[in-house]
Amino acid sequence: MNQQQNNQQQQNQVQIKASDEKLKGEYSNVMQILHTKEEFVLDFLNIFPPTGTLNGRIILSPGHFKRMIGAMQENLKKYEEQFGNIAPSESPANSSGKIGFEERE
After folding, report:
1. Domain layout of the chain by residue ranges
2. Parallel, antiparallel, or unpaired for β 40-48 and 30-35?
3. pLDDT tens digits, 36-91
4. Exposed (0-12), middle (13-18) or buried (19+): which is 77, by Cβ within 10 Å?
5. Alpha-carbon span 105 to 101, nearest angstrom
6. CA 76 – CA 86 distance, rounded (Å)
7. Following CA atoms 31, 37, 62, 102 in sequence, which dihedral angle do they give, to the nearest 10 degrees?
């Protein structure tokens, strides 16, 4: 690799800052997707009947959402090639069949 390629590669690197709290991650057993013409909204939930919590909301542009789906499909394929096929899990059941939000102050 020549000096110009090395400099260009260093310029393309992005340093990401993350707190210890964010690095711990959040468990989600349900994801709800909403969309408008301009964006997709992914709500990651933790449902333990009779209640649940919203652990995170990610808002994406349609183009980025499509790239993300491609990346997930590619990683799923690699995972299954290494560890075997994954059987889809059943949807969690709740009494009403619907998930609703409650605002808290």
Report:
1. 25-83
2. antiparallel
3. 999 999 999 999 888 999 999 999 999 999 999 999 999 999 999 999 999 988 76
4. exposed
5. 13
6. 9
7. -20
